[in-house]
Amino acid sequence: MKLRKKGLFVLSFMLVAVAALAQATDNRMKIFIDKLMEKMTLEEKIGQLNLPVSGEIVTGTAKSSDVAEKIRKGEVGGLFNLKGVDKIREVQKLAVENSRLGIPLLFGMDVVHGYETVFPIPLGLSCSWNMKTIEQSARIAAIESTADGINWTFSPMVDIARDPRWGRVAEGSGEDPFLGSEIAKAMVRGYQGVALKNKTEMMACVKHFALYGAAEAGRDYNTTDMSHLKMYNDYFPPYKAAIQAGAGSIMASFNEVDGIPATANKWLMTDVLRKQWGFNGFVVTDFTGISEMVEHGIGDLQNVSARALNAGIDLDMVSDGFVKTLKKSILEGKVTVETIDRACRRILEAKYKLGLFDDPYKYCDLNRPKYDIFSPEHRAFARQVAAESFVLLKNENNLLPLQMTGRIALIGPLANNRANMVGTWSVAAVHANVPTLMEGLQQAVAGKAQIMYAKGSNLVADTAYEKRATMFGRDLHRDGRSDRELLDEALKIAEQSDVIVAAMGESSEMSGESSCRTNLDLPDVQKTLLQALMSTGKPVVLVYFAGRPTTLNWEQANLPAILHVWFGGSESAYAIADVLFGKTNPSGKLTMTFPKNVGQIPIYYAHKNTGRPLPEGKWFEKFRSDYLDVDNEPLYPFGYGLSYTQFSYGSIELSRNTMTNQGSITASVVLTNAGKVDGSEVVQLYLHDKVGSVTRPVKELKGFQKIYLKAGQSQKVTFTITPDMLKFYNYDLQYVSEPGEFDLMIGANSRDLQKTSFTLQGK
Ligand code: BGC
Questions:
Q1: CA–CA distance from 552 to each of 173, 415, 564, 627, 736 (Å)?
Q2: To pair with 513 at 20 to 30 A between CA atoms, which of 87, 157, 159, 341?
Q3: How do residues 196-230 score in pLDDT, each as one tens digit?
Q4: DSSP summary character for residue 633
């Protein structure tokens, strides 16, 4: 007891000391920036609010480009998507040595899922449900990018997404606010480290604030419109969590919120972000976010720029709206100098926090890239992470893992391509370094089995569609032969094989920005190929590439084995081999619901009940909430994923079945690895508030644990239910819990759950 008291005393002393230190640092920063701003002209202050594209700067021309001239004049606050530490150093030198006040620049980049060592696309990464792994992937991304001069990443993308037609579901962590929040925090910790001052730590930028994932009809950049209840309960939590984790910056979204584009929405950018959540970093627009408001129809460039600044935007990405119009707006009384000062201060504070005023070349060590980028350790970790992101959707009669013997036919348009392995938004990837799936499999089976390859089909029948879906160097080298010829060649190889591995699905650019789809089936020629392969009677394993949930009904009904591999990054070819041949046991679980058809969208597990729910077990009843032509169930539920072993769950034990707002209860199950191989299981906890002052979802994820068990081993898995886990935003947007009965569910996914209940006591 004495020891405990002493411990508490030391802890509180340390907390006070840390707070005092933070206060002293804040004071020093304030004094430094006050002094600097006294010297700045209005033009220089506005210049800090400008983030132009760096596209014109190519090696050797930095000094003479247009942007360089602006940098010299102090009209630029930062640049983005410029690759190469030598280039960045040269440009930084320009700012520091050739502009009047020598203010260093921010260098941003979309380091979304790794740098040259590329990790799985974020949606895939989220399927690992492994926060340590996710944090470490962001840490490595930060080490590599900072080695190459980058000090600011446009990540994490934390937009909740429940419509897989929207291509950008690939860039986020899926449909769930709780899991999304945990991942958001892990990513921020990974990028920013503990201090941000360390030379391997970079500033995170949480995007896209807000509701970008709720675009109507799943069409990118489209309008969003939702109740405040839904915003606060379902869509806001990951942004808020990232801010609480200390994220230094936020990116405004393209869409409107409540009829006002987010970029000009003062309620969002000031009331919610700063007043309610206490955010004290800076806000950048998305690419041309300001000038696009002219198209939105809320004013000309001068007016929309003024509205953005007044709403709380600090940095203008690419629109040139601030540099071109703010001076005029001051004269006309549309903005004040104080508002410009406020924004300028926030940008300077970010630079101060990054340590750029102490050492503007902190991120420009020309020796670092050769040690810190694409290192063997980073690649080994990426291989492990990729395997952890894959989701085994079906495995009839344990077809997988495959034996390393005989002849393996590798067929499909994704089987022999490098550029598509890394997935969308991998700006820094070096495609030549990425092995194809064929190379990965060949290396794995060398000397033991034979890999025979045929492309089998193009990506889609329509050439123009394929072109749109393979932009940015993601060419799939369209084969000029006819569909029939390609198919015949594949069938010939298939006939000679013992097993067929079909590498099919989407190209990497079929998801991501501006890559939305209204038909989520496997594209025409690929489906025909797959059906033909099945009709050979050989066992077929589908290695399925996609950046989103798709409709796989036929595949689920007819194929013996399906492994969803998303886009696993630079080491994914090796990782796929690891899983196919059983070196790694798959453990990924879906973080978005997979629909049976596009008409079911939006479909997500945490839905409301309606007044006319369909009775369990039925798939149609007149005057119930259902469809005539398809049942209400998804193809694969949220949280679903198989393993090469089987896990069994004991029954739920509650420490007690009542709790108060001061107390807590524990819920435990015994988890057993009942199969023959070692493996990991994600044990999931869901709660349902049975009676609320407003309607509540049928279940909500509130906890999860990833447990590794050797074959035959058991472990008791315990969750502590705290009052906070029962809270939600009520009609008045107060964050409360309400006394009453709660269902508590534990299981392997959002569908296969055991249930018990407890009561929250109170008035
Ligand atoms: C995207 C952002 C990205 C920005 C800068 C925009 O088009 O919406 O997510 O960070 O470009 O590349």
A1: 21, 19, 11, 19, 40
A2: 87
A3: 879 999 999 999 999 999 999 999 999 999 999 99
A4: -
User: Which one-letter DSSP state was computed for residue 264?
Assistant: G
Residue 517's alpha-carbon distances to 294, 512, 546, in angstroms, are: 27, 11, 12
Supply the angle between the helices 524-534 and 483-495 in degrees, to the nearest 10: 30
Annotated catalytic residue within 176, 234, 286, 316: 286
Pocket test for ligand 1, best of 287, 318, 319 (most atoms within 8 A of CB): 287
How far is 461 from 524, CA to CA, in rounded Å? 7
Distance (Å) of CA 263 to CA 159, 210, 306: 16, 10, 11
Question: What is the phi/psi pair of residue 281, to 5°?
Answer: -90, -155
Does the C-beta of 287 come closer than 6 Å to ligand 1? yes
Closest CA to 392 of 173, 586, 170, 541: 586
208 CA closest ligand 1 atom index: 9
Q: Which helix (H) or strand (E) covers residue 260, if one does?
A: strand 260-261
Domain boundaries, given as residue ranges, for the chain: 387-580, 645-763
Q: How many CA atoms lie within 13 A of 735 on its CB side?
A: 11
CATH domain 645-763 topology? Immunoglobulin-like (2.60.40)
d(CA 618, CA 178): 30
Task: Encode pLDDT of 364-393 as tens digits.
Answer: 999 999 999 999 999 999 999 999 999 999
Going by alpha carbons, the residue nearest to atom 2 of ligand 1 is 286
By residue count, the chain amounts to 763
Q: Which of 757, 673, 762, 755 is nearest to 714 (CA)?
A: 673
Cα 281 to middle of ligand 1, angstroms: 19
Among 354, 350, 366, 358, smallest CA distance to 202 is for: 354
- In order, the DSSP letters of 304-349 are HHHHHHHHT--BEES--HHHHHHHHHHHTTSS-HHHHHHHHHHHHH
Structure tokens at 219: 């069409």
User: For the segment 694-727, what is each residue's pLDDT rounded down to a tens digit?
Assistant: 999 999 999 999 999 999 999 999 999 999 999 9
Distance CA 19, CA 651 (A): 46
State if residue 513 touches ligand 1 by the CB under 6 angstroms criterion. Answer: yes
Distance 254 CA to ligand 1 centre (A): 10
Our answer on whether the CB atom of 220 is closer than 6 Å to any ligand 1 atom is no
For ligand 1, what atom is nearest to the CA of residue 427? 12
Nearest CA to ligand 1 atom 5: 287
- Output the pTM of the full model: 0.97
Is 752 labeled as catalytic in the residue annotation? no
Domain 387-580: CATH superfamily, name plus number:
Glycoside hydrolase family 3 C-terminal domain (3.40.50.1700)
Q: Residue 132: helix, strand or coil by DSSP? A: helix
| Cα–ligand 1 centroid distance for 400 (angstroms) | 39
Instruction: Report how far ligand 1's centroid is from the alpha carbon of 154 (Å).
Output: 8
Atom 10 of ligand 1: nearest residue by CA position: 154
